[in-house]
Fold each of these.
Amino acid sequence: MTVLRPKRTPTAPVRPAPSASSSRTPAQRLLGRDWRLAAVFTGPTLVLVAGLILVPIVSSVVTSTTERHGAETVFVGLDNYTALIGDAVFHRGVLNSFVFTGYAEIFKVTFGLVAALLLHHLRRGRAIVAAVILLPWVIPTVVTAFTWRSLLDPIFGSVNVLLTDTGIGPALASLGLVDRWPAEWLSDPALAMPSVILVNVWKGIPFFTVTFLAGLKAIDGHLHEAAMVDGASLWQRFLHITLPGLRPVMIVTVLLSSIWTFNNFDLVWLMTQGGPGDATAPYVMVAYSKAIQQLQLGAGAAVTLVMLPVIAVLVVLLVRVMRRSDLPGADDLGRRRLTPPQRRALPWVLAAVSVLVLAWAAPRIAWKAALVLAVFVVLAALVGRLVSALAARGNRVAARVVGGTGSGVALVALFGFVLAPLYWMTVTAFKSDDQIVARTGDLWPAPWTTEQFTNLFTGRAFGTWYVNTILVSVASTVIALVCAALAGYALARLKFRGSESFTVTILLTYVMPGALLFIPLYRLVSGIGLNDSLWSLVLAYPTFTLPFATWLLVGYFKSIPADLEEAALVDGCTRFGAFRRIVLPLAKPGLLAVALFTLTNAWNEFLFAFVFITKDDYKTLPVGMQSMIFGDVVPQGQLAAASLLVSIPVVLMYGFGQRFLTEGLTAGAVKG
C-alpha cells in the first residue's frame, strides 16, 4: 500500500518584522521619537525659563564681579565677596535669616501637626474647619502684615489692651518674657524678631495643617487598630506609627517652607522694614539695600550669591526626597546604609543640633520659645496620659469625655488665634477715624460707617492700583497657563531626549527664590526701558508662576489614561488634536487649580513690584498700600478697608474653586 504524502514546496525564510526603532530616522534615534513635537510644545516654556531665570542667574554672577564708580561700571573681581567678610550688616542679616527661619519652622511644624491631628479625629464639620484654618494662607501677605501691625501697635492696637485686662501682660513681664509692660512689640529690639516670627507662624500654620492632614489620611488605619489590640498607648501609637507615616510629607513640607521663609522679604519689610535698627533685617533686605537703595548692584548680587549654597542644599534635599519614590529600591538602599538604631536616632540628632545652633544664635529668644513650647507640650501630654489611663481602667466614657473636651478647647484656641486678626481687620474697616483715635468700640464699631472706604477711593489712587493688579495678574496667569499646559503635556506624554532633565530643571526653578532674581531682572527691565511699566511685571511674574504651573500639570496629565489619546490617534486624530479635544477637557480641574494658584500668587506679589515700580499710576495693590504710610503716620482705617477689599476676591476664588483645587492638587501630588 502506497501512502501519498503532500509534496513540500520550498518556502522562503521568515524575516522578522521591522522593529519600531529601526523605522525611525537618525534624528529620532538620537533625540527621541517625538522630538519635533516636543520642541514645539516645550519651546515657549524653555525660552521663558532660560531667558528669565537661567540667564539672569548667570548675569547675576557677572554683575557680582563689578562695581559702580560714578557713571561707569568697572570689573573688581572678587572684591565684593571679600568685602562681605568684614561687613557687620551682612553678618547680622544672615544671622537674622537663620533665626527667623529656624524658630518659625519649629512652631509651624508643632502647631501644624497639632491642628492636623485635631482635624483628622474630627467627625463633623471637618471641611468647614479646614476652610477657616486655610484663611491666613489665602489672604495676601500685605494684608497679614498691616493687620498684625495694627494689632501690635502700642497705642491703637488691641493686643496690649486685651493682655492687660486679662492680667496676662503683667504676668509676662514678671516672668521676663517681655522687658516691660505695656510692650512695644515692633519697636523693641528684643521683641521685634519674636513678633515677626509669630506672624509668619500664623500665616504658615495652614500650609502645614493641610499637608499633614493629607499625610494622616494616607496612613493605614489597620496599623493603629493592631497597635491598640497589642496594648499600645496613645503616645506609643503616635511615636511609632503616626510620625513614621508622616515622615516623607513632613520632610518635603519643612524643606519647601524653609526655602520660602529663608528668602522672605515682603512680610518683614511691611512690618518693620528691618528695624528697629537691623534687628529683623534678613539677608534679602541687605541685598536690596545695597543694590537698589545704594545703587551698588554688584555688592547686592554678591550677597544673594553667597547665600546660594545654603539654598542649593535645601533644594537638592527637596529634589532627592520628592524623586525617591520614583526610583525602585531607593528606600531599601537607604535602609541598607543605616542600621535601625541609627535611623531612629538621626532625626533626634539633627533636631538637637538645630536647637543648639538656634540657642547660640539667639539666646534671648531660645529660652522664651522653649518655655512656650513646653507649656503646650506638657498640657497635651497630660491630657493624653489621662485619656490613656482612663481607657486602661475600662472607663471609656470618661476617656472619651476628657479627650473630646481637650480637643474642643484646643480647637477653640486655634480658631481664636486664626480668626482674631481677621475680625480686627474687618471691624476696623467700618470704624470712623474718631473711633480709632479715641479707642471707642474696639471690638464692635458704634456706629458702623463706610467712611474709610469713601476716603480710600476719593483721596487716593486705590482704584488705579486695583485695575493694575487685575491686568497684571490676568496677563501673567494666561501666559503661565498656556505655556505650562503645552510643556506639561510634552513632559508627561511625549518621548524625547532630555525630558527628565527638563522636569528636574522646572522643579529647581520652581523653588528658586525671588531674592536671587530681582537684581538681574531689574537690570534687564532697565536695559530695555520697561521701568515703571506694567509690562515689567508681566515679564517678571512667569519666573515664579510658570515653573509651578508646569510641575503641577505634569503630574495631572500623567493621571489621565493614555488609552483615550491612543484611540483618538488610531481614528486619525493628530497628536495636537488629541491634546486639544481629549486631554484639555479632562484636565479642567488641574487647569483651574493652576489658574487659581498663579492668579493669587501674582495678585499677592510684592518684591518685584516694589523694585520695578515707583510711579503711583503703575503700582499694584501691595505696593500701593505700602505707600499709604508716611513715616509714623499710619492710616489704620483706610489700610483695614483696603485689606478687606484686597482679600475678598482671593477668598471668593478659593471658596468657589475649592473642589477643583483639591482634585487638581491631589492628582498632581500623586503623579508629580
Amino acid sequence: MRAVGRSVRTRLRDRVAASDPGLLRLTAGLRTVGAIALALAVLALAVGADVTHLVAGAMAAMVATFAIREKQPGRQAVTLALGLPVALASVSLSALLNSRVVVGDAFFVVLIFCAVYGRRFGDRGTALGLIGFQVYFISLFVGVKVSALPALWEAVAVAFACSAVVRFAVVPATPAGVLQRLRQAFRARLGQLVSAQIELLDAGPDEVGRALAHLRDGTARLHETALMIQSRLDEGTPDPATARLVQRRVADAEIAAERLGLLLLTARSAERADTLTLHLPGAPVPAVRRPSGSGEAGALLRRDLVALRALVMRPPAEARGTALSQLRNRLLGYRDEENLPEAPPAVQDAFRGVGETARAVMGLRTALDGPQDESDDTPATARSREELDAEDAAIEAEAAEPGAEEEEQTGLRRPTTRAAVQVAVGSSLAIVGGELLSSQRWYWAVLTCWIVFINTTSTGEILVKGYRRLLGTMLGVVAGIVLAGLVGNHTWTAFALVLLLVFAMFYSAPLSYTLMSFFVTAMLGLLYTLLHTYSLAVLVLRIEETALGAACGIIAAALVLPIHTDRRTNELLETVLERLTDVTEGAVDQLSGGYAADLLDKARDLDQALGDLRAATQPLTHPITPLRARRDSARYVVALLETCAYHARSLAATAELLPTHPSIAADPRLRGAVRRTVRNIGAISARVADEHAGTRVETGPSIASLLGHDTAGVPRYGRITGRVLRHLERLDEAVTGLARPLDVPVEAPGS
C-alpha cells in the first residue's frame, strides 16, 4: 500500500510539474494571495483599519508582489525597499492633485511616460515604474483625500512589509530551487512526449490525426520547458561549467526525443515523413502504411518505448536496481547494429532512435541527479557512459567566449522611448474621453490603455490584446453581478472570494489574457461591493471605459511612431535567418575540421529569436483575423522556420560530439555542400529586408550528390554519418520551401 501511495503521489507531482513548469504560476498565485491575506489580517486586527483602507492595503500588497520580476532574492529585496518610497510618493501626489483636475491629469500622463520609459533600465526600472503607476491608480480607485494620507501611508507600508514576509519567508523561491523544479518539469514533459509517441504507434488509421496532434503538442511543450531552463541557468547553477553541462544534456534529450518522434512517424507512413509535419498544425496526415503492432518488431518497439518512458519518469531515489538497469542496457544496445531486430529499414531506424534517446536520458540523469549505478553495465552501456564522460570533460575544459554586443538604438528609435510616447498620447486621449463618460471612473480607460501596451510592440499585437481584454471584461461583468448579489453585505466573505479570484488571475495569466481579464473584472465587482459603490451602471461603465481605453491605445499605436505588424515580423524574420546562418555555418565549419565554436549559445539565440517571431505573428494567426490566406501563410512560414531550427540544432549537437566520438570524423567537403543553403538563406533575408531586391533562391542536386568521390577511393560519404547528410538535405529543402510564401523567385540550375 505504501508503494502504491508513493506511486500515486509521484504521478500527481509529475502532472503538476508538467502543467506548470517550475511551479512559476503556482508560486505567483500563492505569493500574491498570501501577501493580501496577511496584509488584511494585520490591518484588521492590529491597526483596526476601515474597509476603504483594507481595500487599499490589499491592492497595494498585490502590486508590491507581482511588480517584482527579478530572479535573485537580494535584488528583489532592494527593489522592494526602493518601491516603498515610490509608492508613498505616488499616493501622496495623487491625494494632493486630486482636486486639481488639469494639473492632476497632466501629472498622471507624465507619470505614465516615466513608468514606461523606466523599462529601459531593466527589471528594477520596470518594477518601480509599475509600482508608481499602480499605486496612483489605487489612490484614484479608493478616492483618497489629503486628510486620510497618514492612514493610507500606514496601509501601504503594511502591505509592502507583508509582501516581503510572504516572498522571503512563507513562499521563498531561489534561482536554484526554480531551476530544480524546471528540471523536474522537463523530465515530466519528456515522459509525456514518449507517451504521445506510444499513442502514435498504437493509433489505427482513423486515430493517426489525433495522435499526431498530441505529438506536436508534446514536442512544443518540451521545447518550451527547455527554453525556460536555458533562461535560468546562469542564476540557478553554481558555475559556468555546470550550466553548460545541463544546457548540453537538456538540448541532447530534446533533439533525440524530437528525432524519435519523426522516426516513428516515418515507420508508420508509406514514405519518409517530412519534419514539417511535426511543426505545422493542421498539416496533412501521412498515409498509414500498416496498422500498428503487426509483427514481432512492432510489439518489440512498443515494449521498448514503454521501457524508455519508465527510464525517463523513474524518480532518482528509485532509479537504482537491477530491473531498471536491464531496461537501460537493452535500449542502449540498439546503438549497435548487431542488436537491431529483423525489421524493415524504417522500423530499424526507430529502434536506433530509441537507443539514442536512451543515451540522452542517461546523460540527462547524470547531469541532473549525479553519478548513476554502473554495477550492471553491459559493454554497450559502458561505451555510452564513456562517451558521456568524455563529453563532460570536454565541456568543463571549454572557455566561454564573450558574445557580440547588440547595437543599442537611441532617441525615438529606442523601443522604450517610442512606447512611452505612444502610451502618453494614448493615455491623454483616454483621460479626455474617460472624463466625458464619467468624471469619477475615467481612470479605467487609462488603465486599459496602459495595459494593452505592456509587453507589446506592433499595432497588431495591441489590437489583439485590446480585443482580449474587452472580451474578458464583458464576461467578468456578468460574473461580478452574480457574485455581488450572492455576497451582499458580508465583508469577509467578499474578501475570501477576492483572494480566490486573485489566485485564479495570477495562475491563469500566462495561459490566457482573456481569462485573466475575466477574473480581474469579477474581483472588481466585489471590491465595489465592499466600498458600497456597486451598481449595474458602474459595471457597464467599466465595459465602456475599457473599450475606450483599448481604442485610444490602438489609435496611438497606429498614428504615433507606429510599428506595423508587417514591419515588426520582417525585422524578427531577418534576425531568425541571421541566427540560422550562424548556427548552420558554425556547425558545418566544425564538422568540416574548423575551429570549435560556442554552438550551444548560438542555438539558444536562434530559439529565442524564433520565439519572438512566433509571438509577433499572433495578430496574423489569430482566429478572428479575416485574412485567412495570410494567416495560413504566416503559420506555414513559422513552421518551416521551426523545421530549419530543429535541423540546425541537430547539426550543432552532432558537431559538439566531434572531439569525443571516433565514429564522427571531420569532412572538409561539407563546406562546399552547404554553401548553396547559406546563400539561399542570405537571399531570402535580403528579399525580406527589401522587397525590390533582385535575389533568387537556387535549387539543384541533393546535398549528398555535392560531395565528390574521395581520391583515395573511400566511399562518397564514408567519413561522416548519414544523419549529418539527412539534416543538411532537410535544412536545404526547408530553406527552399521558404521562398514561395515569402515571394522569393526560385531559380533552377541552368535556367
